[in-house]
Q: What sequence folds into this?
């Protein structure tokens, strides 16, 4: 087989290849508004849109370029078919809750359709069917359970035995009228629309702390600028603030991988698919700027807990080459999202005592519909409207009691990582770190994050995460240092890339011997 090295290519999503079109400034002075929305992914942007439409003065900020994290690096399947969620909700809760979850997704999806129609947004929208499929009998039983849940919920569906695209598998559950699009084209349009419609948007503006002042909230940025607002929406994926809500014990950070191949063979692109294996494969097509791509994604794991991130890409590559006539991928990238304890997102008041701070997180890699839906629930809550969805998604719903097993497992995993991380690796000679290589090493008796760039410059940083002190692991595919506890990630030079940590790693000085 021809030898390919996809790591010759830097990690860049097909969607972000041209960046975004709007010129967005940094916040340079204090500002007052009705609602400050922190985080400009699909959740923050669509929430800003709805709040603005409801007549409120909105400020939207992002600590980097908007749409640069999960929303710009997603697979962007817009579907209510969220893995095996409906049978799971029926098992953990009841039919009413499963029905509400389904209706929430329909509301989210309909909203996106409506926006695209209303504004005639050019975003490579394509209607498709969605299939969840089984590779073996055991997985197929789960699919039959899911079908039974669909029937109880009156969701139109069909069991199929001949899988499209000659994918290896024994059958699947198909639903029609789902869709896919280019998330950056879609959200980029919304940003330019918001800018023209009196929403202030700022990039490179990080919310660092929150100070309550009577009824008002002051959001203080990294540059000590203040955004004074009546309501605050935290749409930062992992909440940047909210220790009282114990989010760090209730969210798991999950990283996944994607490859985009230019396809030349005629393939039926009317399907998006996902397998039911423990490490699922996900497929969709995209016609981007006249070129037809096949996207193969999945092979996720908890952030900072893979033996080798490169291996996840290799698995995708093998899957793609087994099932399709593909060559070298045109794009490769990875991203992360967060999972709640019961797989139902946390959308609503940050804690039961925060009446004017709202959060939307825990989409478990289904944030296209969930993020769009959040904008509706949060706008209703801010405007004092009752919502039938409030209880199901309430972040203080007490799912810990109902899902004690998952809660203990997740936190035991964090404790295990904390202990494991305190063990010292072997001492190595710094000269043994080759160009463009990195790792966690023992240096001067301490655990150190080390990376030597392509030009030979060596970067040494303290390997302790600046959030709650877990020890970082080296991500060999993205050349980053990732936290196995709550998913913060740091660049090879110690700068925070994403996650709840808001301080860079300490740089370590090289010991000079005389
Ligand atoms: C690989 C992968 C594939 C996926 N595929 C699908 C799919 O096919 N279908 C689907 O429905 N979902 C999918 N998802 C999930 C979906 O992409 C996410 O749930 C969704 O994009 C989350 O959107 P968000 O706006 O909440 O967060 P994000 O897009 O992550 O945006 C959060 C923003 O907050 C900013 N921010 C963070 N902290 C601060 C701060 N302190 N101050 C200011 N700004 C801050 C960040 O810079 C970022 O821009 C996938 C996820 C992954 C990782
Ligand atoms: S992200 Fe919490 S300890 Fe690292």
A:
């Amino acid at each position: 087989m021809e030898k390919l090295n996809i790591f010759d290519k830097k990690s860049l999503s097909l969607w972000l290849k041209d960046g975004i079109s709007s010129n967005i400034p940094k916040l340079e002075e204090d500002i007052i508004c009705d609602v400050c929305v922190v985080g400009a992914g699909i959740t923050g942007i669509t929430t800003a849109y709805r709040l603005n439409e409801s007549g409120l003065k909105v400020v939207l900020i992002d600590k980097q370029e908007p749409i640069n994290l999960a929303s710009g690096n997603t697979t962007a399947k817009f579907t209510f078919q969220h893995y095996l969620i409906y049978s799971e909700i029926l098992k953990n809760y009841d039919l009413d809750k499963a029905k509400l979850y389904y209706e929430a997704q329909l509301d989210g999806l309909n909203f996106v359709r409506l926006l695209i129609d209303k504004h005639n947004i050019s975003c490579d929208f394509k209607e498709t069917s969605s299939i969840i499929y089984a590779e073996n009998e055991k997985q197929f039983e789960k699919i039959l359970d899911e079908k039974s849940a669909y029937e109880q919920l009156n969701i139109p569906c069909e069991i199929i035995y001949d899988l499209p695209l000659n994918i290896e598998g024994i059958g699947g559950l198909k639903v029609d009228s789902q869709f896919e699009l280019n998330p950056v084209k879609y959200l980029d349009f919304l940003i330019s629309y918001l800018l023209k419609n009196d929403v202030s948007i700022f990039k490179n503006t990080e919310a660092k702390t929150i100070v309550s002042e009577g009824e008002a909230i002051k959001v203080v940025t990294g540059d000590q600028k203040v955004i004074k607002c009546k309501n605050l929406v935290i749409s930062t994926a992992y909440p940047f603030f909210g220790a009282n809500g114990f989010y760090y014990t209730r969210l798991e950070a999950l990283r996944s991988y994607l490859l985009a191949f230019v396809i030349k063979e005629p393939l039926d692109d009317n399907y998006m698919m996902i397998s039911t294996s423990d490490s699922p494969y996900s497929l969709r097509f995209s016609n981007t700027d006249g070129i037809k791509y096949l996207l193969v994604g999945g092979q996720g794991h908890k952030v900072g807990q893979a033996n080798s991130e490169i291996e996840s890409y290799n698995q995708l590559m093998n899957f793609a080459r087994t099932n399709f006539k593909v060559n070298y991928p045109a794009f490769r990238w990875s991203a992360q999202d967060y999972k709640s304890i019961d797989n139902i997102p946390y959308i609503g008041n940050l804690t039961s005592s925060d009446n004017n701070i709202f959060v939307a997180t825990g989409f478990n890699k289904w944030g296209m519909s969930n993020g769009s839906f959040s904008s509706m629930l949060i706008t209703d809550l801010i405007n004092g409207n009752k919502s039938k969805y409030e209880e199901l998604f309430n972040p203080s719903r007490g799912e810990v009691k109902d899902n004690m097993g998952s809660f203990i497992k997740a936190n035991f995993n964090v404790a295990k990582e904390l202990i494991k991380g305190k063990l010292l690796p072997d001492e190595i000679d710094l000269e043994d770190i080759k160009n463009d290589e990195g790792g966690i090493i023992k240096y001067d008796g301490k655990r150190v994050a080390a990376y030597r760039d392509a030009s030979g410059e060596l970067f040494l940083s303290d390997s302790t995460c600046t959030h709650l002190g877990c020890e970082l692991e080296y991500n060999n595919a993205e050349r980053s240092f990732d936290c196995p506890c709550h998913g913060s990630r740091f660049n090879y030079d110690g700068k925070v890339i994403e996650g709840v940590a808001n301080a860079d790693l300490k740089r370590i000085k090289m010991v000079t011997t005389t």
Notes: The pocket of flavin-adenine dinucleotide (ligand 1) is lined by residues 38-44, 61-64, 68-71, 74-77, 206-207, 235-237, 240, 256, 258, 297, 335-337, 363, 365-369, 371 (CB under 6 Å). Residues 95-119 form the longest helix (25 residues). The chain is about 25% helix and 30% strand. The domain at 27-73+184-249+343-402 is CATH 3.50.50.60 (FAD/NAD(P)-binding domain).
